[in-house]
Amino acid sequence: MKIALGADHGGYELKEKIKKYLSQKEDIKIVDMGTYSTESVDYPKYGHMVAKSVVEKEVDFGILICGTGIGISIAANKVSGIRAALCTNTTMAKLTRQHNDANILALGARIVGDVLALDIVDEFLATSFEGGRHTRRVETIEACNLF
Ligand code: RB5
Fold first, then answer.
1. What pLDDT, in 10s, does the model give residues 43-58?
2. What is the pTM assigned to this prediction?
3. Residue 87 among the catalytic residues
4. Among the options 66, 87, 134, 144, which is catalytic?
5. Which residues of 44-120 form beta strands (DSSP E)?
């Protein structure tokens, strides 16, 4: 499984911890799209870069981190085909994979602790889309052209 990581300065340290953690797993390959330090940067750039790599199928999933997880998930969700889910607990991570077929996990480094963040990552990556009635709903999200 190939995973793109992206973060702003607020998410940099947690990104590094997630990278180290996932790098120990044999079946996971990481693509780190930055940022590469705690120097202040603008989160939309990283949200868009990771989102592009997901929709272009260069990776299977993305993980995005900023201070709250909010700005970077909003940015990623502007990219057609992206369903970025901001999760603050493992239940949300499980349900967003099962029901929304989320393809990006967003985390807030100033919101969740490191241990919980790694548990959320594990749950997100271990859970499959349930399909069935959820397929129609996800297709309806993608078909939206009202505005
Ligand atoms: C950066 O200070 C902060 O605004 C950003 O990391 C994020 O929380 C935005 O939603």
1. 999 999 999 999 999 9
2. 0.97
3. no
4. 66
5. 61-66, 84-86, 104-108
